[in-house]
Each structure stands twice: as structure tokens, then as C-alpha cells.
Amino acid sequence: MLGALAAAPLAGALFLWLERRAAAPALPPRLLTGFRFPAALAVGVLLNLGFYGLLFLTTLYFQRHRGWDPLATGLALLPMGALVAAASPLSGRVAARAGTHVPAVAGLLTGAVGLLGWAAVGPHTPYALLVVPLLLTGFGTSFTMPSATIAAMEAAPHEVRGAASGAFNAARQLGSAIGVALFGTLAAASANSAFYAGMRLSAVIAAGCFVCGAILAALSGPAARTMPNPAATDGS
Question: How far apart are CA 213 and CA 206, in angstroms?
């Protein structure tokens, strides 16, 4: 894993070099000019890195260290997804009134608190104490995602929004892969004490990713609110 992480910047630089010379680049270079769209990509990476990385560890925690079967583990994680149906449409309503940065920042900070709650987990932590971190993490992630997606699309020129959508989704998947690999490595030791140490460190890193994402969303927010609607400026 460490070798792959070391090679990633070189691979990324090579990809950008090739894209700048391609006749029809998959990632138009102008998408990466300025601050707003690169910031949106970074938010996508950080959001999925923190959420899916720790979700992977929580599954291991319930099954390998609490001895629960897959069904019991799924039911235990149910509160994390229980608020999706309410949080996603609520995020859209808030974004329509206050701008995409408001629900993105609020959701990321809420999720950070929930993720940090896993830093106190132990082999005998009552499940009732884990419900609050699960709820906060699920609500924060679901509240963030619609606004983060909208912000990424608004930050891209109208004619390359298809490429922007693909780039944003790829950034999210990259974050998921890094999170699972990184947090899985930190908690890979078989001894319980080592697992919990790795899980606590992973929880702190995941919360830090959400906080960094909130900062990026806040810094790119005001411009998103004042950006003109392309439909109002194309002469139609």
C-alpha cells in the first residue's frame, strides 16, 4: 500500500500531462483551473475516504470483535442509513435557500462529530452508546452529498459538465478505495488491542477528513452563491 501511495502522485502527474496533450481529454484541463472545481473534487475524496473507510472498520468491529453475524451487523448499522430519506431532500431545500456551501459545511461538521465518536469504542462498549455516532455520521454524510454534487456541477462550465460529473464520481470512488485500504491497514493486526488502536486512529483521521472538507466547502461557497445561472446568460 505504501508503494502505491508513493506512486500515486507520479501517476497523477503523468495522467494530467497526457490529458493536456489529448485531442479529446476525458478530464478537460480547464476544469482544474481556478479553485472551485478542484475544491469540489477534494471534498468528494475526503467525504468518501472518511465515511467508507470507517464503515469498513465498523463492519469488522461488529463481526470479528463482537461476534455478530452479518444480519445482526446489518441491523446494527441500520441507524447510519435511517436518516438518508430525510437528510437528502432537506439538504436540497437548504441549498436552494442558502447556497450549497451551507448544508455541505453543516453536514461535514456533523459527520465529523459522529466519526470522532468511534475513537472511544472498545470491546464492551454498549451498543446504545454507538447509536448516536451512527446517526450523526449517517445524517452528516447524507446531508452533505447532494449539495457537494450540485456544487461540483455549478463549478464546471456548462459544456463540460458531463466530464465534471464523471470526474466527481471518480474522485469519490478514489476516496473510498483509499479509505478502505488505509484504515484496513491501520487495523490489520489480529490482536484486539492493536485493532482498537487502529480503529481509534482511523476515527480521528476520518473526522479530520470531514473537517478539512468543511473548510474547503466554506471557502468555495460564497462564489457558488453569486455565480450566474448559465441559462440566464446564454442568450435564451
Answer: 11
Q: Dihedral, CA atoms, 117, 120, 126, 129, nearest 10 degrees? A: -20
pLDDT, position 176: 95
Where residue 235 falls (left for φ over 0; alpha for ψ -120 to 50; beta otherwise) is left
Would you say 164 and 153 are in contact if contact means Cβ atoms under 8 Å apart? yes
CA angle 161, 167, 173 (to 5 degrees): 140
User: Per-residue b/e over 21-51, b at no fewer than 16 CB within 10 Å?
Assistant: eeeebebbeebeeeebbbbbbbbbbbbbbbb
| pLDDT recorded at residue 191 | 66
Listed in sequence order, the DSSP H helices in 120-191 are 127-154, 161-186
Q: Which amino acid is at 79?
A: P
Q: Which residue in 22, 2, 127, 136 sits closest to 68, CA to CA?
A: 127
Using one digit for the tens of pLDDT, what is the confidence trace for 108-135? 999 999 999 999 998 889 999 999 999 9
Three-state DSSP class for residue 155: coil
Q: Is 153:161 a contact under the CB 8 Å cutoff?
A: yes
C-alpha cell at 93: 431545500
Q: Compute the distance between CA of residue 104 and CA of residue 154 in angstroms, rounded to an integer.
A: 14
* Residue ranges of the chain with per-residue pLDDT less than 50: 223-236
Give the chain's end-to-end CA distance (angstroms, integer). Answer: 52
Task: Encode pLDDT of 68-93 as tens digits.
Answer: 999 999 999 999 888 877 898 899 89
